[in-house]
Specification:
With 89 residues, the chain is mainly alpha-helical. The chain folds into two domains: 40 residues, no CATH class; 37 residues, no CATH class. The chain has three helices and two strands, in the order ββααα. Strand 1 and strand 2 form a beta hairpin. Helix 2 packs across helix 3. The longest helix is centred in the middle third of the chain and has 11 residues.
């Protein structure tokens, strides 16, 4: 629920105070709230039907990167782990 992947119960909310003392509501500003929260899944999630590029773009979007920067973020991530050649497959 705190990651925003599950819906809040009606009438409830989650608030956090960021390092800059900004208070953010999960219900009112999901995108900003997610920018302060990180999700570490307990298992690997690789979908056979997705390419390397699509996986990197998915993770970038889940981590809150704006859609216009996602292709460049995916490219940078691929370069960091030596998967640049796999981006076009």
């Amino acid at each position: 629920m705190i990651t925003g992947l599950l819906p809040l119960e009606p009438g409830s909310d989650v608030w956090l105070r960021a390092a800059d003392d900004n208070v953010v509501s999960l219900r009112k500003n999901l995108r900003e709230f997610r920018s302060y929260v990180r999700l570490c899944q307990q298992n690997d999630f690789l979908y056979e039907e997705l390419t390397v590029k699509e996986h990197l773009e998915l993770v970038s979007m889940l981590r809150g990167f704006h859609s216009e920067s996602v292709p460049q973020v995916a490219k940078d991530q691929a370069e960091q782990v030596g998967l640049t050649a796999e981006l076009n497959k």
